[in-house]
Structure formats: C-alpha cells, structure tokens
Design goal:
The complex is a heterodimer of chains A (172) and B (519). By secondary structure, chain A is mainly beta. Chain A has two domains: 77 residues, Glycoprotein, Type 4 Pilin; 83 residues, Beta Barrel (OB fold (Dihydrolipoamide Acetyltransferase, E2P)). In chain A, 9% of the residues lie in helices and 58% in strands. Chain A contains two helices and 17 strands. In chain A, the strands form three sheets. A nine-stranded antiparallel beta sheet of chain A has the order 4-3-2-1-9-8-7-6-5. Chain A has a four-stranded antiparallel beta sheet with strand order 10-17-15-12, with no helix packed on it. Chain A has a four-stranded antiparallel beta sheet with strand order 14-13-11-16, covered by helices on one side. The two termini of chain A are 34 Å apart. Chain B has six domains: 28 residues, no CATH class; 102 residues, 3-Layer(aba) Sandwich (Rossmann fold); 68 residues, Dna Ligase, domain 1; 128 residues, D-amino Acid Aminotransferase, Chain A, domain 1; 117 residues, D-amino Acid Aminotransferase, Chain A, domain 1 (2-Layer Sandwich); 37 residues, no CATH class. In chain B, the strands form seven sheets. In chain B, strands 17-16-13-14-15-18-25-23 form an eight-stranded antiparallel beta sheet, sandwiched between helices. Chain B has a five-stranded parallel beta sheet with strand order 6-5-4-7-8, with helices on both faces. In chain B, strands 9-12-10-11 form a four-stranded antiparallel beta sheet. In chain B, α5 runs antiparallel to α6 and α13 packs antiparallel against α14. The chains are: A mainly beta (172), B alpha+beta (519).
Chain lengths: 172, 519
C-alpha cells in the first residue's frame, strides 16, 4: 500500500506502518521516526529523528508545497502504487504490464502460456526498496514474460504481455 | 502645510496658500485625480502616496487579468481591451482615451511600459493633462544611448574614454594606447558581443586591430572600429536626482546596484561601501550637473560605472522612477513619489541640499518568480500561499497575493523586500532573516538564492561588482538536501495529501494518529 511522491526530480515510496504506538511512515523503505504539531494556518513543527523543522505547507491538487528553513519545495503526489500500475496498463486497450518505476525483478511466478485469473500474481518487483506484486488485470493467457528474476528494468518497461482476446478465445 | 484655497474657474489651476501665517500664495496645476499607467507593485506603491495626498487614483488592468492588489487599491479602474495584456499596457491611445473619459488631471507612468516613451509624455500634455515626469525632449535625448553619451561628453562630463579609428587611422594605435590597457576594441556598428576584443597589452594591439576590423567587416559589413577603456568588474553606482521647473536640482545620494543576473539588478543598497565622503560628493555633484545641463525636470537617475581605481563614467540616465527607489526613501525619509507629484503640479523644491541627510543603511532584494538553477528562466503558477515578512524595519512592496496567477504575460518580479538597519551589518542580518520568513508557495522563486547572496562572505565584506553572481556561482547554488530532511519533506507531503490521509485514517484509532493532525 505504498504511495509514490516526487521531490526534486526523484521519486520515493511512502507507506503507512501500523505500530502499537500509532502509525509510522516508511519512507524509501526506511521506517521514519516522526512526530509533528499543527500550529494552525498551515504552520507545523515536524520532528524527524530528533531534528526539529518548522514548516509551512500549502496544497494544490496533487502538489504539496512546503517552505522550510528559507527554501521552498514542491512535492508531487504521483499516486498509490497500485493505482500507478493500473494506469500504466493503460486500461483494457493494452495487453502490456508496464513498470511504474525503475526496479529489479524479485520473482517470476508465471511463464508464457500459463492461464491466469484476474488478480493473480504474475511477478514480484522491487522498486525503491519496496516489493510490489504485479497481478493480472484480467483473466487470460500469459503470452510472454519479458524480464527474468534478478534482472533490472526502467520506468515504462514492458514486464509482461497478456494474449489478446481473439487469441485467447482460440486457445481456450 | 499646503492648502488649496481657490479653484480657478477657467483653467485647471488653483491658488494654494504656501504659508498659512504669511499668506504667501502660488498658482499650481490642479491635481485631484491621477491615472497610474502601470500595474503590480509600483501601481500599489503610487496609489498609496496618492491616497496620503488626498487625491483620487485611477488604475488600469487588462480584461483578462483578475483582481490584483493593484486593482483593489485604486479608487477607479479602467479595463483595457486588446489581444494581449502586455500590448494593452503599451496602448497609449486607449489609456489616454480612458484618462480623458474619467476626467483625469495627471498621469503617473511608473517604470517600464510607457514610462520612457516621449510620445506618450507629449500626448498626455497635448490633451491638457499633466505628465508626472520629465519633458518629452529629455526623454528622447536620454533614450538614445549614443546621443546621451555624446551630450554628456560635450557638456564636459566623464564618459569612458574612447577613440575612433575613422578619425585618423594612422594615429589610431597611438591614440588607443593613450587610453590605457586593458582596452576594448568594438565594431562601430556592433552589438551582442560580436566583434569585441579585449586587449591587455601594447604588443597585442596591432594584431587585435586587424582582427577586429576584419570581424566588423564580416559581421556588420562596416569595418569602422573604436577603442574604449575596458573596465573589469565595475560597480554599478547610480544617483537619484530630483529637479523642479524653476531649475532647482537636488540629489538624494547614491544606490549601488552591482548585484545583477542576466544584466538585471537583483540586490540594491544605499549607501555604497565603495564611496568615501569625497568620492560621494564628486559623483553626486556630477549627476546634478548632468541633470541641470539637460534642463531636467522631475525624478531621474544617472547611472555610472565605477572602476576599481575609483574612476567613474557616465553610463546612462533613466528618465523615470526606478524600481529600487525605496532604498533611497528608507535612508533619506523622503517620499519620492510625493516629490514627483509636487514638482509636476508646479511646486518648487522647498528643501536645500544640506537638508537631505541619510540615516542608516537599506538593502532591497527583488523577488522573482524564476528558476535559479535553469538560467533564471521565468516561472509561472498560481500562488497558493503567500507570507510577507512583518517587522518595523521591513518594507515589502508586493504586486501579488494569495490566489494570484503568475503568468508569462508580464515581468516575473513579484515583490521587493526593503530592509533597514542602523549599520550595513544589521541590514544584512535583518535581510537574511526576513527573506527566510517570506514565502510564495505555488511557484518557484529566487528567495533562497537572494538570502545566499546577502549572507555570502564576499557580500558581507562589500566585495560587490557586476561579476559577483558569476564569480560565486558555486557558493550560490542550492545546497544538496540531506536524506533526513528529504524524509521529513516527503512525510509532511504524504500527510498533507488527502488521498494518503484518507487511506491512513480509514484505520481505526489508536493507529490512525500521528502527531495532532487536524483536518
């Protein structure tokens, strides 16, 4: 359940971690000890691993603007990983599973010719120290897997391709 | 105290009582309503003085512009039509027609746009309104940089020494050597840095002359060249002058504007550390001399280049109010716009030069919507949050507010921060502090860059010249973000993102609490 954010041209994954003492955040795979105080009017005091940062925050759409120590930053919410994967598939018009960000293949669970059900795991990838399961977005047939375990890929790479509907019917 | 006593019926004149006790009177042009032919922070600034003088202000804005601080602070607004907003502000005909319809008595042009357009000044007068600025003739003269240089030189003031080859080609080498090295050889028809050669010693001169002539011929089809004294890393010093119709001319001391990027000033201050008492007197009286020679009237600025050896040369004269005029106002305690208005309506300067004194030090930083890491290219966006610094030693002249759209239609200057200190050191530390307090969220600005400039050891030491920004490029680049701060920013962003928070808060207490987030 990670969310993708972009700051200064680099993307990071943030996910909530439910702990006994409350919710923590895992940022780039690292659990971040975090506390903050809302001073009102967009002003906050953040405490991260013992350091105190007074900040000023304003949001607009997917952008979060933060002013801290005389510098201003824009952080863009790319979206939840699942949503990104979904969108990268380009809806039903495409049969390709596309990498939402650069990473490494941890495990390939299906091979070409395998029948898959919607939601079934095809492969597991790791990006930004976070594992993500890439599942099939419909019932069908795996036509090809274009990556192998341990191999790397770039953002936008095609990871696997499902057979198109016609072929699917023939085969089925 | 000046009071209106009687309004003439036949003309736009009134008799004012200059001195209530003696009953001394003078006829001045009646001025009750003034059109500000400008926008942004300078329109706001002019409107403020008009209000203080009990005059009505009329603003202008293009139909596509929404409400801005400039449209909110005027008594009346003329909405201009036209395909592009910038063309509308340059549309003298439309502005003058609007001014006539609203029975405007005078026009203040501000800076930029029509402020140095002699035809606009002329038409304003021809339509029976007062132009708050100098005569069209002097705007014309000073607007032509070559004519201005010739005029100033002819009147006996210093321009950077130069020799033309054409005058006598045989003696050109000797005449050039006499100027002294380093020299700059330039094509008479040149521009854009082409065909320019820096010559550092006599032994290189002959070769460089050949080269420069060849290039001048090739690039411009005109082989005429001239030699000019090359001033390395000069300081930019300018003098504020103010002259009335009667020929009284005063100076309001200097401003140093050496910190520039893309040939545009970004930090200005007064007084300049580069001038001692003697040099200050010399440069200020030279400025007054030039203004008097040009029969100048109203506010003007004479710009000089100051060489490291203390020699200074006339650069140009700006026939209008300058962007950086607030530093002068801050240390002299004078309202320059008020003086402009009084002079324009015929009042004589009633103060003597000795009465104009400076106190303390002032620094102005210009806040631009720009990307300092990509050659200061202008940035656009909507300002989702604006925080202005508040302190008694701060003046913040801004043309934008929360919700303002910063578009590519206009100059990307958002605001000016002007800070006062008893000493330069105090003005510097207060500037850094104020810059850090200020934020314009929603668009990239140079705020952090400005604080790195002002806090730079070389700036603190007063080692300022026009090469400053290039020389300290590495020091002025943003520091790399620490991983801890990066995590803080990302965490803060995630918690501010509605999507993310909804997801987190879908989990029941006690898990769904980090800090004391309130919606």
């Amino acid at each position: 359940m990670g969310y993708l954010f972009e700051l200064l041209g680099e993307q990071s994954v943030i996910e909530p971690v439910y702990q006994e003492e409350g919710i923590g955040l895992r940022v780039d795979g690292r659990i971040t000890d975090l506390d903050f105080k809302d001073l009102g009017g967009g002003e906050f005091i953040f405490e991260v691993e013992g350091d105190i940062y007074p900040v000023r925050i304003a949001t607009s759409g997917d952008s979060v603007f933060i002013h801290s120590e005389g510098e201003s930053y824009e952080i863009l919410a790319i979206n939840s990983l699942e949503k990104v994967v979904e969108e990268a598939r380009g809806g039903s018009s495409s049969d390709s599973l596309i990498a939402p960000m650069p990473g490494v293949v941890i495990r390939v669970e299906k091979k070409a010719g395998d029948l898959v059900k919607r939601g079934e795991t095809i492969l597991v990838i790791e990006s930004m120290k976070l594992q993500t399961v890439v599942t099939s977005f419909r019932d069908g047939l795996v036509r090809s897997i274009l990556v192998e375990e341990g191999g790397g890929f770039e953002k936008g790479s095609v990871l696997a391709v499902l057979a198109s509907d016609e072929i699917e019917e023939d085969q089925l | 105290m000046i009071m209106f006593a009687k309004r003439d019926q036949e003309a736009a004149f009134a008799t004012i009582i200059l001195d209530g006790l003696s009953g001394q009177t003078r006829r001045v042009r009646l001025m009750e309503k003034v059109l500000i032919a400008n926008r942004g922070e300078i329109a706001v600034r002019i409107a403020k003085t008009l209000r203080g003088m009990d005059m009505k202000s009329v603003g202008i804005a293009h139909e596509y512009e929404g409400e801005t601080p400039a449209t909110r602070c005027v008594d009346e607004l003329i909405v201009l039509r036209g395909d592009s907003p910038i063309a509308a502000y340059l549309d003298a005909k439309q502005i003058l027609e609007g001014a006539r319809e609203r029975d405007v008595d005078a026009i203040h042009p501000g800076y930029g746009f029509l402020s140095e357009n002699p035809n606009f000044a002329r038409s304003t007068r021809e339509l029976g309104m007062t132009y708050i600025g100098p005569s069209p003739e002097v705007i014309e003269l000073m607007g032509d940089k070559i004519l201005a240089r010739e005029f100033v030189s002819k009147e006996g003031f210093r321009i950077s020494p130069s020799e033309e080859e054409e005058e006598d080609p045989l003696s050109f080498k000797e005449r050039s050597e006499a100027i002294g090295f380093p020299l700059l050889l330039k094509a008479a028809a040149g521009g854009g840095g082409k065909g320019m050669h820096i010559v550092r010693s006599a032994k290189d001169l002959v070769g460089a002359i050949e080269l420069a002539k060849g290039e001048a011929e090739r690039y411009f089809g005109d082989g005429r060249i001239y030699a000019e004294r090359y001033i390395e890393n000069p300081r930019h010093i300018e003098v504020q002058v103010m002259a009335d119709k009667a020929g009284n001319c005063l100076h309001f001391f200097e401003r140093e504007c050496s910190i520039q990027r893309r040939f545009q000033k970004i930090v200005e201050e007064s007084p300049s550390l580069a001038l001692d008492k003697k040099l200050r007197r010399k440069i200020c009286s030279e400025a007054v001399g030039i203004a008097i020679a040009a029969k100048y009237e109203n506010a003007g600025t004479i710009e000089f280049i100051l060489a490291p050896d203390g020699e200074f040369y006339f650069l140009e004269m700006n026939t209008r109010l300058q962007v950086e005029h607030p530093v002068t106002e801050m240390i002299t305690g004078r309202d320059l716009v008020e003086l402009q208005i009084r002079i324009a309506r015929g009042e004589e300067l009633s103060i003597a030069q000795e009465e104009i004194k400076t106190k303390g030090h002032a620094i102005e930083c210009r806040v631009y919507a720009e990307d300092v890491e990509h050659d200061f290219s202008p940035c656009i966006g909507r300002l989702v949050d604006v925080r202005e610094p508040v302190a008694e030693f701060v003046r913040f002249d801004s043309g934008v507010a929360k919700g303002s759209d910063v578009s590519a239609d206009f100059d990307p200057m958002l605001a000016k921060l002007i800070v006062y200190g008893e000493t330069r050191e105090e003005a510097i530390s207060r500037s850094v502090e104020s810059l850090k307090q200020t934020s314009f969220l929603g668009v990239n600005t140079n705020l952090a860059y400005l604080s790195r400039i002002v806090a730079h050891p070389a700036f603190v030491k007063g080692e300022t010249d026009t090469g400053f920004v290039a020389r300290h490029k590495l020091d002025l680049a943003p520091k790399e973000l620490s991983t801890k701060k990066r995590r803080m920013l990302l965490a803060a962003a995630a918690l501010s993102n509605r999507d993310f928070r909804e997801r987190v808060e879908a989990v029941p207490e006690p898990y769904a609490s980090i800090g004391d987030w309130s919606n």
